[in-house]
Specification:
The protein has 192 residues and is mostly helical. The chain is built from 7 helices and no strands.
């Protein structure tokens, strides 16, 4: 076994670990931005999103994104785990924006669609197998700095679509259109 293979495999596993350590950070951020009664749901969703997204990506998404599992540069499982960590972050970006607006079951259903189809199709045309290669829509020359296009904008576009469908948080506006201030979980502790 070559030394580069081992080093690349260990680096991918280390980077994947760092990405997954973002879960508690996102969970605490989102828990601090919602009302006290919704903290448990937000924490549950953050863990659930990763579990469901990982399974959907394993069963369908990875093959759709990259075509095959062959990887000469590192362990195929290290490459999969590294990419799996990203799919969870994409859905996490979206789930934070719909906190207090949706129930867990519809969010779980959307997570499956996002991890099995939407995110892998975006990865396919940018980092992956590139099913659009040779067409006028080929964007393989696109530069993606640290996943800002593939990860962050895919999550953000999914969030925008979800917000347009779901609408504002319940009780956010009065009947005459004024904003009703509802203090988030952490802010309410500081005020009282």
């Amino acid at each position: 076994m070559e030394m580069n293979y081992v080093i690349d495999t260990l680096f991918a596993l280390f980077a994947m670990t760092l990405i997954i350590f973002m879960i508690p950070g996102f969970a605490m951020l989102e828990a601090g931005l919602v009302r006290t009664k919704n903290v448990t749901a937000v924490l549950t969703v953050n863990i659930m999103v990763y579990a469901i997204a990982s399974m959907a990506f394993l069963l369908i998404g990875y093959s759709l994104a990259f075509g095959n599992w062959d990887n000469d540069g590192m362990s195929k499982w290290a490459a999969f785990l590294f990419q799996m960590a990203f799919v969870g972050k994409t859905v996490n970006i979206m789930s934070g924006g719909v906190s207090e607006r949706t129930r867990i079951v519809p969010l779980a259903f959307f997570t499956v669609i996002m991890a099995a189809l939407i995110y892998p199709l975006v990865v396919n045309v940018t980092w992956g197998a590139n099913m659009l290669s040779g067409t006028i829509f080929d964007i393989s020359a696109m530069h993606d700095l640290a996943g800002c296009t593939v990860i962050h904008s895919t999550g953000a576009w999914a969030l925008l679509a979800a917000i347009l469908v779901i609408g504002p948080r319940r009780g956010r506006y009065t009947k005459d259109g004024r904003i009703r201030v509802k203090y988030p979980h952490l802010t309410s502790l500081w005020l009282f």
